[in-house]
Amino acid sequence: MRATILNCTLKPSPEPSNTDALAEVVAAGLRELGADVRTIRLVDHDIKPGVSSDMGDGDEWPGIREEILNSEILIMASPTWVGHPSSVAQRAIERMDAMLSETGDDGTPVAYNRVAGVVVTGNEDGAHHVISEINGALGDIGFTIPGQAWVYWNMGPGPGPSYSDTDHGHQYVHQVAGLMAKNLYAVAAALRDRPIPAQVSRGED
Predict the structure, then answer these.
(1) What angle do CA 86, 111, 197 make, to 5 degrees?
(2) In this model, does residue 202 exceed pLDDT 60?
């Protein structure tokens, strides 16, 4: 089982990322179950704007797309900015829009039989909105979204410490992160063993 985490922080490496820290809790849970997990910090890559899988010279999205399609589990991890996913998360979703029309040799959309979940951090309210936006987009693209396949942390509205600056709420959030990992793994394993059937073109029996 392979999992890819897209860290959509606005902070380039090696700057510490609160989003990465919480996503790593989910990653640890997946590794305990036997999954091979890779995290990609998208802001470190040249991802061109657009809605195609390859936007030409210098575009690093094709390699990231390959990592996604080589995995059974996708996790998008985003900070909350002004109540919305980060601009980096939005760009990744826009690039994955191309998957809507991409199919395997049997006609099945490429995102089918893969599961997805969301990690959200931020010291302002809006986490549920971010989860809804990202999960809605990933579901449209074709990913399967298991129940309780998300985890978030914030301090509530207004300024305050970030995830890595405090232990506030960590015990509960880490329990949810563990449950998220188990649910993602279980549904991915179920789809691996009994995949969504190949699609039949309209007009065929």
Answers:
(1) 155
(2) no
